[in-house]
Amino acid sequence: MAANLKNAAAIVGAAESNEIGYPEERGPKVTSLQHHIEAIKNVSDLTGIPISDIEGVFSTGWSQQLAEHLGIRPHYLDTTTVGGCSFQVHVHHALAAIHAGIIDIALVSHGQAGWSYRGAGGGGRPVAGEIDPGTEMTIPYGVFGAPSNYAHAMVRHMHRFGTTPEDFAHVSVVTRQWAMLNPRALMFSKDTNPFGGPITVQDVMEARLIAWPLTLFHCCLVTDHGGAVIVARPEIAKSLRTRPVWIAGAGESMGHQNMLEMEDFTATSASRSSAIAYEMAGLGPQDMEMAMIYDSFTITAAMTAEMLGLAPRGKGYTLWKEGHAAPGGRLPINTNGGGLSFNHSGMYGMQLLVEAYRQLSGTAEDGVHGIEGKQTNARTCVVNGTGGTLSTTGTLVLASDE
Fold it and tell me: Which residues, listed in sequence order, are joined to residue 57 by a DSSP beta bridge?
């Protein structure tokens, strides 16, 4: 039955908010809500779809507030919040709702002032002082915060497969190469950030230690960002001035919530969510010409590549080390510079969607930047988001042609 959803809807436009990264350096702080609204206006202008035509609103807890601020009365709301993969899950849900005939046009939006309002949660909103029960059980053992958890995953991978921190450092080095082709990337150059510009494996290894074996350059950025995509029924998608990118496959899966319950620190639910998406699309990892992979840490990207079938178990890092994921490689990965060097507001899945759309629609540079080498001309892309601590995943298979 899942195969019936193939190409039942398309992403018809994607846009970001106006000031991303560290906006407070260029003026007043921008709230998470403002990031939402700017991105929504920008994608509406891009596609020519009036905001009043939006029938479904999908966001991580903001859907009612967004509808109210936009002055619309949607008849489908989704506030699924499962971490960084929420937006891949939203696209999956929007695909199902459109296929079911409930709505024709869906908005998936995200705004998060992760830098300007550090310490906030739920996409930028303040959170209460209490912690969840799982975290309460791990803090006494010194495990608190994402770096300490992901460090455990890397150490386990190293023990099981014989990998080294240097192997994973290649993920950061190559991702930086892509960032240097994207002027909006925080690490575009030393002119825009003192840590920007090209880096080497040695630079990664000698950077400040965060949680052994993770150094600073093994870890993602913390920034501000807003993004939005519009998903539409095929008849509408084909009538717009923007080029549709078809949702050929979609899947979601959960392995655990607390990392103490993770059966295998070297495997995630991405293996299951991608299998569902590939089956729906009638395609496999061998058919993917590009990948957008959540890179909260270098271990996240390398391990997810294994789960997506893009590399053998224990060998995910080779896609970066051997240059396959780099500019000019056979499988470009995270062509915007990723969460490691472009932008990472806290929940990075929206940035994956925006870049995947731009690449597959042939608008990766938006006709503005004029830097050659970033547009890949890929026709298929697997997009995978990770939520929580390697916990929940959402996978999409996107294609430029039906």
Answer: 77, 107
- b/e per residue 306-320 (b: at least 16 CB within 10 A): bbbbbbeebbbbbbb
- Token pair 């575009």 in the structure block, residue: 188
Give every residue of the chain whose pLDDT is below 70, as ranges: 1-3, 24-28, 118-133, 365-373
Cα dist. 304→67, 291, 298, 378, 399 in Å? 34, 11, 10, 20, 20
* Cis ω before 213 (30° cut-off from 0): yes
Measured at the CA of 120, the angle between CA 115 and CA 122, to 5 degrees, comes to 110
- Would you state the structure tokens that stand for residue 87, as one six-digit string? 């937006």
Task: Report the distance separating Cα 200 and Cα 78, nearest Å.
Answer: 43
Residue 21: what pLDDT? 84
pLDDT of residue 367: 43
Q: Which helix (H) or strand (E) holds 146?
A: helix 146-161
pLDDT score recorded for residue 95: 98
CATH, range 10-118+221-399 = 3.40.47.10
Cβ–Cβ < 8 Å for 227, 354: yes
pLDDT digit string, tens, across residues 147-188: 999 999 999 999 999 999 999 999 999 999 999 999 999 999
Q: How many residues does the chain have?
A: 402
Angle subtended at Cα 369 by Cα 289 and Cα 84, rounded to the nearest 5 degrees:
55
Q: pLDDT value at position 30?
A: 80
Q: Whose CA is closest to 7, among 345, 297, 247, 224?
A: 247
Tell me how far apart the alpha carbons of residues 392 and 387 are, in angstroms, rounded to a whole number: 5
Residue 59 near residue 123 (C-beta atoms within 8 A) = yes
Position 144 scores a pLDDT of: 72
Residue entry with tokens 């930086």 = 176
Q: How many CB atoms lie within 10 A of CB 262?
A: 21
What is the per-residue pLDDT for 369? 52
